[in-house]
Amino acid sequence: ELKVEQNPLFLSMQEGKNYTIYCNYSTTSDRLYWYRQDPGKSLESLFVLLSNGAVKQEGRLMASLDTKARLSTLHITAAVHDLSATYFCAVNNNNDMRFGAGTRLTVKP
Amino acid sequence: DADVTQTPRNRITKTGKRIMLECSQTKGHDRMYWYRQDPGLGLRLIYYSFDVKDINKGEISDGYSVSRQAQAKFSLSLESAIPNQTALYFCATSDSVTGAMADTQYFGPGTRLTVL
Q: Per DSSP, what are the bridge partners of residue A11?
């Protein structure tokens, strides 16, 4: 059974600091996604990673994928308050889409 | 106007009642999905449809049914609602066209359902 684990589940960090969110999954997959959810809102797509070694960056967020380790990371550089949200990774294994439990990020001044 | 809409946005119902949640999209996508979100559990896939005549069970389909009335419409039914179906329900769409966006999902605003 495909399982997706994120850690940490809660992350409080100060503005200007760097941090990484980890996403481990249990079976092979050809697609990994990162989404953002603001409180009381829907999910918004951030990145889709399709191959081993894929790296994508948008602003202060950078996502990478290691399919051999079954691991994706979401790196936050010089955090700002606007990045406060819940971040989800999701894995698509032959149309079986599984989400991690989410990482609630709070960026404090 | 929003690309993916859900109705109703909030609903309170009683145990044993039948309820239908509706989803419409103007994105022209062929694939549609229903998820539920519970605190601490992320999103879990209930059903998905890749075409009007295609319906597939997801991770947690028991107690739910769906209907794909048209390419743009996908409804979720609870035939006899129970309290543990209280959750936030999301509809999503994606495009089967391959490429860099590979099935990226676009979510509706959600329906908050409470079963008393």
A: A105
